[in-house]
Amino acid sequence: MMNDTLSNALSKVMNAERSRKEVCEIRPGSGIILKVFGIMSSNGYLGAVSEARDTKGIKTTASLMGSINKCGSIKPRFQVKKDGYERFEKTYLPAKDYGIIIVSTSQGIMTHTDAKSRGLGGKLLAYCY
Question: Minimal CA–CA distance to 112: which of 82, 91, 90?
Fold first, then answer.
């Protein structure tokens, strides 16, 4: 039984990345996984991301580019204020301006740099570098 689908999806991506696979298939899929993968794709960590529905449910497919050093979900989902991102950058990212933290805000799911520039706080979902 799976408790956190986002955490399982990021673990599958990390395992596929380490074994140098070209494609990673995630089942079951969800909207949050698709949005997080879309952000990772737009920042150059994943290639094309697609979603397919069949009789077994939703399947998300992501092409891997070999550019992920580490990714994972952040548990517990810490709340962060608009000026409190630096503490979590030091915790989850290896260096300044290297990698992304994905945040769920009131205006949608985005990276921590976008949230800082818009002056938004939110809940931390995942990190990738």
Answer: 82
Residue that the structure tokens 């976008």 belong to? 114
Give the range of the structural domain holding residue 17, as residue numbers without chain letter: 5-64
CA dist 78 and 71 (Å) reads 17
- 91 lies in the same domain as 43: no
DSSP conformation class of 69: S
Query: What tens digit of pLDDT does each residue of 1-49 get?
Result: 468 999 999 999 999 999 999 999 999 989 999 999 999 999 999 999 9
In angstroms, the CA 112 to CA 1 distance is 31
The torsion angles phi and psi of 119, rounded to 5 degrees, stand at: 75, 40
pTM, entire model: 0.92
- Cα–Cα dist 55/123, whole Å: 33
Which among 100, 51, 97, 70 has a CA at the least distance from the CA of 10? 70
The DSSP H or E segment spanning 10 is helix 5-18
Angle between helices 31-42 and 5-18 (to 10 degrees): 40
Total domains in the fold of the chain? 2
